[in-house]
From TrEMBL:
Protein name per UniProt: Metal-binding protein
SUPFAM superfamilies: Vng1086c-like (SSF140371)
Alphabetical list of Pfam families matching this protein: UPF0058 (PF01893)
InterPro entries cross-referenced by the UniProt entry: UPF0058, UPF0058_sf
Species the sequence originates in: Methanocella arvoryzae (strain DSM 22066 / NBRC 105507 / MRE50)
Top-level taxon in the UniProt lineage: Archaea
Leader sequence segment: none
Gene3D superfamilies listed in its UniProt record: Uncharacterised protein family UPF0058 (1.20.1270.110)
Length: 88
């Protein structure tokens, strides 16, 4: 995936995050927030945006109540991208 595509996906997931927060959904975005990255940080490298996407995706899926499924999806994605060190 190109960096521009990753930034677009990061933008979409950040909007979902804001929506969930505005609706009062219980979600733990602390790992994502600890990265201090947003879709607007276009100067950050591709890997940073990939990590942010995985962390956002994991928290979003957990927030909507599919924690077990998200864990498998995230672990598989992290392994495929060589980012297994991010696993909780």
């Amino acid at each position: 995936m190109q960096k521009e595509d990753l930034i677009y996906l990061h933008t979409v997931l950040a909007k979902v995050k804001r929506h969930l927060e505005s609706e009062g959904a219980t979600a733990d975005f602390s790992r994502y927030e600890a990265m201090h990255i947003s879709p607007a940080h276009i100067h950050r490298n591709k890997t940073d945006h990939e990590r942010a996407i995985f962390l956002l995706g994991e928290a979003i899926v957990q927030a909507v109540g599919r924690q077990e499924g998200s864990k498998r999806i995230v672990e598989t994605g992290l392994k495929e991208k060589g980012l297994a060190d991010l696993k909780a």
